[in-house]
Amino acid sequence: MDHLSTLQMILLILLAAIAIIDGLTTSILASMPITIAVVAGIIVGDVKLGVTIGATLQLMVLGVGSYGGASVPDFTTGAIIGIAFAHSTGKGTEFALALAVPVGLLMVQLDVLGRFTNTFFQHRIDKNIQDLNTKAITRNVLLGMVPWGLSRALPVAIMLFFGQKIVDTIVNDLPDWLMGGLKVAGGLLPVVGIAILLRYLPTNKYIAYLIIGFVFASYLKVPMLGVAFIGAALAIIQFQRNANATPLVATTTQTQSLDGGYEDGEYEE
């Protein structure tokens, strides 16, 4: 691929393999588009592009999880490919997103293949457990990572090394209605992600802050970073108000009764 060195391509291939393995095991990078995209941006030398692509794709996967063996679009791998080609061709963010979405959808099929292949090692581990062979258990657990890593590394390697031909096939040979649909979906999915997020947040309680953020972003055209700073300031104010609020304290006093004695009484202040 033009404008990317062999070392950069190798690092991107390794990143794709490490991302899926990390998501299944250590979760150091959390296998999220935003974190992997930043690393990919550092590798290609364009951190701004990495942050932009990663943040957009992260909104697409909000509320989406792979539960019970279900396979979901892998926009983490899509982010790596989108950033690599957008940087090498100089076609910018829209091109990267248009490429990342179909790649992420393609990864669903390869994810199924990775799961299917991995069952071979799972059955071997079951037998090792019955035989109490701890060394074999460890060995097969490590070998089980291989199909997962290859399910991401191989397609990334093919796309990177074949370069522009693969991009032309994806971009030019696909029908206009499909590419147009993908672009529309790319614009709608972040909104869907935000809607899902708001569904589980105490939005009704803090609706005023939501309106303030909407006005700043939509009408005053404040950049997202500025809106984030405003939100952080409002959050600090709200926290300080809650911390300084005087709680109701029950206090016990003595009052003199009619017969000259004292009675205990309680009041709140």
TrEMBL record:
- Enumerate the transmembrane spans: 29-47, 59-85, 97-121, 141-162, 182-201, 208-237
Q: Subcellular localization, per the record?
A: Cell membrane
Q: Which UniProt keywords apply?
A: Cell membrane, Membrane, Phosphotransferase system, Sugar transport, Transmembrane, Transmembrane helix, Transport
**Main location per UniProt?**
membrane
> What single Pfam family name could you report for this chain, choosing any that match?
EII-Sor
> What is the membrane topology listed in the Swiss-Prot or TrEMBL record?
Multi-pass membrane protein
The record's PANTHER family line, in alphabetical order, gives:
N-ACETYLGALACTOSAMINE PERMEASE II COMPONENT-RELATED, PHOSPHOTRANSFERASE SYSTEM SUGAR-SPECIFIC EIIC COMPONENT
* Listed name of the protein: PTS system, mannose-specific IIC component
